[in-house]
Amino acid sequence: MFTKSSRKPSAALAAAATLALVATACAESEREGSGGDDSEPFVFASAGDISTLDPFFTSDGETFRYSRQVFETLLKHESGGTEIVGGLAEDWEQSEDGTEWTFHLRDGVTFHDGEEFNAEAVCANFDRWFNMTGPYQDGNNSYYWQSIFGGFAENENEDIGEPRFESCEATEELTAVITISEYSSVFPGGFSLAAFGIMSPAVIEQVENEEITGEPGNFTLPAYTQEAGTVAGTGPFRVTEWNQDQAEVTLERYEDYWGDPAGFETMILRAIPDENARRQALEAGDIHGYDLVAPADVEPLEAAGFQVPTRGVFNVLYMAYQQETNEALGDIEVRQALAHAVDRQRIVDTILPEGGEVATQFHPDTLDGWSPDVQTYEYDPDLAQRMLADAGREDLTVEFCYPTDVTRPYMPAPRDIFDVISADLEAVGVTVEATTYEWTEYIPRTNAGDCDMYLLGWTGDYNDAYNFIGTWFSGPSDEFGLRDQELFDAMAEASSNPDTEERVAAYQDLNEQIMEILPGLPISSSPPSIAFAPNVVPPNVSPLTQEEFAEASWQ
Amino acid sequence: MLRFIVRRTLQLIPTLGGLSILLFAWLQRLPGGPEYALLPDDATQEQREALRRALGLDEPFTVQYLAFLRRIAQGDLGASLQTGRPVLTEFWTRFPATFELSMTAMLIAVSVGIPLGYLAARRRGSALDFAAVGGSLLGICTPVFFLAFILKVVFAETLGWLPSAFRLSPGLTRTDITGFVLLDAVMTREWDVVWDGFVHLILPGLALASIPLAVIVRMTRASVLEVLGEDYVRTADAKGLHPGTVRTRHVMRNAMLPVVTAVGLLTGSLFAGAVLTESVFAFPGIGSFVYSATQERDYPALTGFILLIATMYVLINLLVDISYSLLDPRVRAQ
Fold this sequence. Notes:
The complex is a heterodimer of chains A (555) and B (334).
Chain A: H1 2-7, H2 9-31, E1 42-46, H3 61-70, E2 75-77, E3 84-86, E4 89-94, E5 100-105, H4 119-130, H5 143-149, E6 165-172, E7 175-180, H6 201-206, E8 237-243, E9 248-253, E10 266-271, H7 275-283, E11 289-293, H8 295-303, E12 315-321, H9 332-341, H10 344-350, E13 357-358, H11 381-390, E14 397-403, H12 414-427, E15 431-437, H13 439-447, E16 453-459, H14 466-473, H15 485-495, H16 500-517, E17 520-525, E18 529-532, E19 536-537, E20 553-554
Parallel strand pairs in A: 1-10, 1-11, 14-15, 14-16
Antiparallel strand pairs in A: 2-3, 4-5, 5-7, 6-7, 8-9, 9-10, 11-18, 12-16, 12-17, 13-17, 19-20
Chain B: H1 2-10, H2 12-29, H3 34-38, H4 45-55, H5 61-73, H6 87-122, H7 127-141, H8 144-158, H9 181-188, H10 191-228, H11 231-238, H12 243-280, H13 286-295, H14 299-327, H15 329-333
Helix pairs in contact in B: 2-14, 6-7, 6-10, 6-12, 6-14, 7-10, 8-10, 8-12, 9-10, 10-12, 11-12, 12-13, 12-14, 13-14
C-alpha cells in the first residue's frame, strides 16, 4: 500500500485537498438557513448527558434540566423567581402543626400517554417512592427522597433515617392530602424538587416489576429509565429519544399540554463538557444556547450579539474561619478585623459576572429570612489594623485554603478570588500561607477543619433560609469549629416551626445573630450565566437554574 | 508465525495483571473519593459514610482488589458510577466513535506524512524540506486544545464551513446497526448521514492527527535519508536497476520498517490523545468519557476503560509486530 502512495505522493496530496475542499463547500450549503420556523429544532448544550429518564433516581442537575420540561411537580418556583408557587397543585394548604399538606390539583391535565392526572395519580407516585425496597433504598438511588422524606415504609438498612412521610390520600378527585410525621423546614420546598416529578400511573404499573440490578457501586438502573418510550409526565415537552452514544435527548412539544404550548416543536439537549467548546459551538451556530458560561466569556459574547440574560442570585460564597485549629480566630475581634480587611466589592467588580453582589449574610436576599439589619463589616484596612493591634495579633499567620481545579457557580476562578483576599490580608499585616487542594479532596479537608481559613459556598435547592444557614450552623461541626449550643438550639426551633411567617422572622433573627458571631465572612452571591443565540426568545432565566424552556421560541 | 502470535498473546496476561494492580493502587490513593463526587455538596457525613460502605470502599485494599479480579474473571467490569450502566456497555457504545476518529487521524497522518517525509528526504535542503521539518516541529509543539481552538475559529466560526462539535448534527436520525456511523450509513445507503458523519470528523481528525503526522514526517524523512546512503542502494543504482524499482523495493521497503513501528505505537497513543481532542470537540467517544470519569472519580469506569484501552494498545502492537515480520523476514527468523 505504501508503495502506491510513495510513487505518486503529489497525486495523493491533491486528492486529499480536493476532498477537503468539496467537503467544506458542501458543509456550508447544508448549514445555511436557520430560520424562524418553529419546526427547526432548538439545540441547547449542557455540561453533561443526563443519567436517567426517571428523575427520582438521581441528584444530578443535568438530568433535572431535562426532567423539568417533561415532568411537573406539585409545587414549583415561580418562573424566573424564587417564590414557591403552585405547579400541578393550583394551591395548597398546610395544617397548623405542618404535618398535613392538602393539595388542590389542576383540572384538565393529562399525561403524555393519555392518562388523566388526578389525586390518585399523585398518590400512586408517592406510594411508589415510599414503598421502594432493595437497591432502590440505596442512598445513591433515592438521594432526595431520603433528604426530604427520610426513610421508607420498611427500611432495609440501619443507615436509612426514620420515614418522615406517612401517607398520601386522594380525598377527592382533585384533592390529595400528604401527611408527614413531623414538620421540618424542608417543606413546602421539598415538594418542588425535580426528583419528585409526577409520572403517569399507567407507567408506574407497567414498570412495577422492573428492578435495579447489581450490587452497591454496580447498580444498573431499570431499562425504562434508559430508553425513551415508557416514561410519561404532564410537562409541555415529552421525551421521544435519548441517544446515549451521541449524548442527545430529544423533546417534542406535547400538543395537549394544559398550559401555554411550548414555543419550539423540538428541543434537543446535547452534552458538551468543555466550557470553551460550548462557547465555540454557540458562536459557530452548532447550538442555540448553553449553560454555565464562564464569567470571562459574558462580555465578548454580548459584544458579538449573543444574549446572556442575567439570572438572579441564589448562592453565596464565604470565607470561613476555623476557630479551633487557629486559636487567634477564636477571638471575635480578630474575626471582625479580618472582615474589615477584605475588599469584597473589588471581588464582585473584577471577578464575578454581571449581577454579582456583595453578601451581607449567609444567604442572598432572594430568600425569605434575609435581614436588612445585620451587622455589616465595611472595607476599612486602617480599622482592621487597629483592631488586630488591640487584640495583640499584629503578627497573625493563617493557613488559607482554596481549590485548584474547579469553578462553582458561586466561585468562578477560586485562585483569583484568593489572590485578592490574600493581598488584602497581607496589607493589614497578616501572613497568609496558601494551601491548595483538588476539589474532591478540598471538601473533606475543609469539613475536617484542616484549614484555618478557606473559601466555600453553597447553591440553594429551594426557597427556605434553613437550606442555607442550616447547612452550616445547625450543630457543632469541624468546618467552623463553632460550638455555640445557644445558636444551634435557636436554629432547631426556627426550622421546626410550621408557621411560615414566624419561621421567616426567626430566620431574620438568626441571620443577625450569626453575623454578630461571625463564624465566617460572607463574600458574594453571583449568578451562573446562560447564553442564547441572537434569534432565540429566551425563557425567563431562573436564579435556581430551573428554566422552563417551553417559554422560549424563535424570534 | 503462529507460535509467534500465541507467545505474544500470552504476554498480554502478565502485562494486564501488572497494570491492573498499578491502576487499582493508584485509584485508591486519589484524594477524595466517589462519595464526594457522587453526592451533592450538602450530603451529610453519615450519607457519605453509608455510600462508602455500600461501595465497599471501607474494605482493605487486598479484599477490594481480589473482588475486582473475581469480577473481571467473570467478564464483569462493574457499572459506571456516573451513569449506572455497565462499564462494558459504556465502552462499546463509545468505541466506534473513537475508532472512527483515530482512523481518520491516522489516515491523514499516514497519507500526508509518508509522502511528505519521503519528498523532504529526496529534496533535502529544499524549501519543501525546510517547510516539512519546521512544520512538523510546530505540529509536535502545538498543544491539541490550542490547535483545536484555532481550527474552530477559522473553519467553524469565521468561514462557517465545518461544525465545531459533535459526531453528528443534532436531531439527525440514522439506522444503528454496528455503532460505526459511517459503516452503518453506507450499509443502509443513508448518504446524508455518511456526509454528516464525514464532515464532523474533519476538524477533530486534523487536530488529533497533528502529532502523529509530525512524527511520521520526521521518521520517514530520517529513515529514507539513512537508506539512501546505504551501499545496497548505491549497488542497485549502479547495476542499472530501474530507478522506480530501487525507490520502492530497496529504499521504501527498508525505510518503512521504523515508520511502521511508529505508526503502530502512534495508533495506540491516539486513544490517549483522543481524551483531549474529544472533550474539546464534544465528540462522544471513549476519550470524553474518560475525561468526565476522572472528574467524577468514577473508579469502575476508569479502571475498566484503562484496562480495555491497554488491551487494545497491546493488541495493536501485536499487529504491528506481525506486519513488521511480513515486511522484514529477519524478524520472523529470530
